[in-house]
Structure formats: C-alpha cells, structure tokens
Design goal:
This protein has helices at 9-56, 86-95, 104-111, 118-128, 145-151, 168-179, 190-193, 206-237, 242-255, 259-273, 281-306, 309-317, 322-350, 354-358, 379-387, 393-423, and strands at 64-70, 136-142, 183-184. By secondary structure, the protein is mainly alpha-helical. The longest helix is centred in the first third of the chain and has 48 residues, at 9-56. The protein is elongated. 33% of the residues are buried.
Length: 427
C-alpha cells in the first residue's frame, strides 16, 4: 500500500496567513502612495492658486480721488469740445487741498497724483452733458499707478526716500488727501471694460476677451463640423484598410504635436502664402482649429465606439439605411461624448499662447476688435504682454488676468462634466 505524505494543515494556514499579510501590506503601501500623490498635487495646486490670489486680488480694486471740479468756461467751452483744458481744471480742483504748492515743477508733481486717463473721464462726462459747463460737479477719477501702489500698501512709506519713486513730500500730499476722506478704492470694473493701455491703472482685458471670443468662435465653426464629419466617416463609413489605418495614426500623432508647430505652420501658410491679416482673430481661430480638430476627432470616435452594436443591428433589422442608422440613432446617443470632447478641445485652445504669438496676436491694441479681421490680442497673449512689462502695476494685473483665464477654463471643463453626467447613457 502506497504511503501518501500530506502537509500539515497548520503549515498551510500559516503560509496562507503570511501571504495575505504581505498582500495587504502591498495594498496599503499602494494606497498610501496614491494618497501621497493626490495630496502633493493638491498642495501644488493650492500654492499656485494662493500665490495668484495673493498677488492679483489687489488689481480688482482701483484707487480713486473724489474731487469737486468747477468746469471753468474759460478752459472748457461748447465750441471747443471735445477739446479743452480738462487737465488744468482737474489740477485746479486738486490744488484747493494744497494752496501752498507753487511753481511749475511742484505743480507737475502734484498733477502726477492723477492718472493720465482722469482728464478723459471728465471730458467724456462734459461731452455727454455740456450743460454742466460753468457748474461745480463731483468727479471720481483714478490715481496714477505709483499712488495706487502706495494706497494698496505695496510701497513702504518708512523706507529710505532714495529707494522709492515717491518723495516724502509726495507721500505727504497723498496722506493729506486720505485724511480729507477723498480717497476711495472701489471695484476695478475697468479691468474688464477697458482695453490695454501703457498705464497700468487704465489697462484692462476687454480687447483680449473680445479677441479670444472671435478666435474661439472661428475655431468652433471650423473644427466642430470638420472634426465630427471626419470622425463619422472614419468610424462608420471608411473601409478598414491600410489607408484608413495610416490616417488614424496621423490623427493621433497630430494630437501630440507641440502647439508651436501649428503656429509656425500658420505663419508660413496663412500669413506667408495666403497673405491674411496679421494679428487677426480669424487667423488665430484657424490656427487653433488645426490644433483642436484632432482632439475632437478622437473624442468623437471614442463616443461613437461606445454606442453598443445592438443599436446599429436593431436599426438595420427594421430596414433603416446606413445613413439613417448613423444620423438617427448612433450620433444622437454619442452626442454627450462629442460635446464633452469639443468643449475640452476649445478649453485647451483658449489657453494656448505659442501659436498666437507667432502670428502676431501680441500687438499693443488699445481698442477691442469689432470683427475677426481687426487686429486683436487674446487672454494668454495679454498675460504674456503684461508679464513682460517693466511697470510694477502690471504685476498684480498679470495675476488677475491669469485668474480670469483660469475661471473660464474651469467653467468650460465644469460644463463638459455636467453634460457628460446629465446625458450619459448606461448600457
């Protein structure tokens, strides 16, 4: 009779228990690494947002001076409008607080408290209502950038005089105005309603916002129909052969091409060969469309593949044509994924800078474009321009512009997530 040796059950149990403990340790370690990675990413994101907010929140307010201005008919007359001595009228109102200030040099320094745009604000008000000529009116005008920085605490009043732009006497003038209660810091709506300016206190994002709108509109009108049409053909109608495989590989490669390459392509083709206008949102939108189209094609094909084959088979079984199956059944069910991919692609296009720089959308534009053919900037290029500016006032405005851009990007991604969750079908 054969003697069969057996392993004691206690040995099997101890070995299994050790293996289970080892597996649990690995799982715990993997979970710990995952949590550490998420925590590190969240920390970096918090540091980024905190640094932007800490340096940019001051740009959302602007220092103003409230003056009682006598609209002197000798300086400003109906016949001369819109010309007139608006700066002299404002200086006279400001000089009422400092009757001891005399001399051309001192008066010029006193006038520097007011922004260069203060006279234009008074001019616009007089042009709108000429009846106020000869009357005393209350006007709120912005201060210059140096005094705006002083009011916001960005200038150390206790530092040595030779280490700051404002002399002790000038700081004393401003403190006198503060004690008089004529200094205010309202919300800086000009950051949104003004176009770019060489003076930080007057610079705004209106031109960049409108330019980005036109560029994204052109990008959407080109990339959306072409991208969806290409994806439908490749996924539903194109024969599966080496040519379709080659096209698919090239589309995937285009989605990974650096954006600066598309900018060089636009510079050579759109501007060089076709002679299209430089710095125009039309060219910027076409360039962004070249970048966005591969993303839309890939997202649309993935959404079409996610529709179960039974939908197609059922439609074909009741006599529907291939065209009716695709456009009447498959595409409507895939539309949430298509829209999600499109919005994400447009959000990526909104944040692109390199291709727009190469086609000249970083020019100094002082007015918002009326059409896609007018010269314009975009939000990313406006940020680039301000970041490269030497004036200190543009530091906070650069961070504020980045916060505005991030707000648009987060909103667009939130809309994409909402559409995906609302219209997503569970099969």
């Amino acid at each position: 009779m054969t003697d069969i040796s057996t392993t004691p059950s206690s040995s099997i149990g101890s070995a299994g228990s050790a293996l289970m403990k080892k597996r649990n340790r690995r799982q715990t370690a993997l979970q710990g690494l995952g949590l550490a990675a998420i925590s590190f990413a969240a920390l970096m994101l918090f540091i980024l947002i905190a640094s932007l907010v800490s340096s940019g929140y001051k740009a959302f307010t602007q220092t103003h001076i409230q003056l009682e201005v006598f609209v002197d008919p000798e300086e400003i007359s109906v016949e001369r409008l819109p010309r007139g001595g608006f700066d002299d009228v404002l200086l006279a109102s400001l000089q009422d607080y400092f009757p001891d200030v005399e001399g051309r040099a001192d008066l010029r320094k006193l006038e520097n408290i007011l922004s260069n745009g203060a006279q234009f604000r008074l001019r616009d008000r007089v042009v709108e209502n000429p009846d106020i000529i000869g009357q005393t009116i209350t006007v709120k005008v912005p201060t210059s950038d140096d005094y705006d920085q002083l009011a916001k605490g960005l200038v150390n009043r206790e530092s040595p005089e030779d280490q700051r732009k404002l002399a002790n006497r000038q700081i004393g003038w401003f403190e006198t105005l503060e004690e008089a209660g004529v200094i205010t810091q309202p919300i800086n709506w000009a950051l949104i309603t003004n176009a770019d300016s060489r003076f930080p206190e007057l610079a705004g994002l209106k031109g960049a916002l409108v330019g980005s709108f036109w560029a994204l509109l052109v990008c959407f009108l080109i990339s959306f129909p072409l991208g969806i049409g290409s994806a439908i053909y490749l996924e539903e109608f194109a024969p599966k052969n080496k040519w379709s495989d080659l096209i698919e590989v090239n589309i995937n490669n285009l989605a990974a091409v650096p954006s600066v390459v598309f900018g060089l392509l636009a510079l050579a083709v759109f501007l060089g060969w076709f002679g299209m206008p430089r710095s125009a949102p039309l060219v910027g939108g076409m360039t962004l469309a070249l970048m966005t189209m591969p993303t839309i094609i890939i997202a649309t094909r993935a959404a079409l593949k996610a529709v179960p084959p039974s939908i197609r088979e059922a439609a074909l079984g009741v006599g529907a044509s291939k065209h009716q199956v695709v456009f009447g059944h498959v595409l409507p069910l895939a539309m949430p994924g298509v829209l999600t991919g499109t919005i994400i692609g447009l959000a990526q296009a909104l944040g692109e800078t390199a291709p727009l720089l190469l086609i000249g959308m970083n020019a100094f534009i002082t007015s918002a474009p009326d059409t896609p053919l007018d010269s314009a900037t975009a939000l990313p290029t406006q940020i680039f321009i301000w970041a490269d500016s030497p004036e200190r006032g543009f530091v906070s405005r650069t961070s504020a512009a980045i916060l505005v851009l991030l707000t648009f990007l987060v909103t667009m991604n939130a809309v994409a997530i909402y559409l995906r969750s609302k219209f997503e079908r569970k099969w």
